[in-house]
Amino acid sequence: MSTADAPRLAARSLSAGYPGRTVIEGLDMEFAPGRITMIIGANASGKSTLLHTLARLRAPLAGRVELDGADVAGMPRRSFARSVGLLPQHPSAPDGITVAELVSRGRHPHRGVFQRWGAADSRIVDDAMARTGVEALADRPVGDLSGGQRQRVWIAMALAQSPRILLLDEPTTFLDLSHQLEVLDLLRDLNRTEGTTVVVVLHELNLAARYADDLVVLHEGRVIAHGAPADVLTADVVSTAFALDALVMPDPLTGTPLIVPVPGGAHTPAEEN
User: Fold this and answer.
1) Which of 112, 117, 143, 157 is deepest in the core (most CB within 10 A)?
2) Cα separation of 273 and 270, whole Å?
3) Opening angle at CA 51, ends 203 and 9, nearest 5
């Protein structure tokens, strides 16, 4: 899929949150099609609330989410799922389900109630497992796998869904560094080879800077910076968003911004006043 053909996901005057509590207010943003966008911010800044609203897990309090200009609230569930896939932060699998069975569930949005499993479905599932390196685990129960293996299986299920847009909420949480890089390399490969639009909530600033085409920085439910990592990650932005004094310098390996906290530089809003 070329960037010109990639779908456009956008928030229009979007307010999101919970009954009696607005977390995101008046957000207008288009997520660049065919690119990797990473959403960063301190805890409780609204990252997951925004992602869940984009994924239709939470209805907007005001405004709307659009896919190619259409309000997603009016889309049939299967139609939306054929275009947008979600990997939540803490996915759970039924006891005893095998890797192949879980990955196969990604095909559900593409099959009607009475439509039988076909050869094309099998090819897509096999390809998803091969791309994520879990084909040798096909007959293993998901519950027996390591954290890194399970995360690759969940991504394989998302790939089997063949989404045009993939939303991921903290996909590297609880993984060691090597597995974090493995997951992010996989997402970048998917984006570069398939043109899939990837939107990721990530907590690790330096990895976000390394892998993102675009960064969105949230602070108290508002976007305070949006653009290329080199333009967005400044000392002032890091200080505002994370209450952290830091140096920002080029990574010697990638040239992307590298955040180096200043010893004793963490501060609280009370100290700022």
Assistant:
1) 157
2) 5
3) 120
Q: How many helices (H) and strands (E) does the chain have?
A: 10, 12
Q: Pinpoint the alpha helices (H) of 14-146.
A: 47-54, 77-83, 99-104, 119-131
Strands 84-87 and 257-266: unpaired
Contact between 10 and 216 (Cβ < 8 Å): no
Provide the β-strand partners of residue 15.
62
186, two tokens: 């996989």
Flag whether pLDDT at 5 surpasses 80.
no
Average predicted confidence (pLDDT) for the chain: 90
Q: What is the 3-state secondary structure (H, E, C) of 47-61?
A: HHHHHHHHCCCCCCC
Q: To which H or E segment does residue 204 belong?
A: none
Q: Which of 160, 146, 155 is nearest to 184 (CA)?
A: 155
Domains of the chain, with CATH numbers? 3-75+164-272 (3.40.50.300), 94-163 (no CATH)
Q: Which two tokens stand for residue 44?
A: 């409780």
pTM above 0.85, yes or no: yes
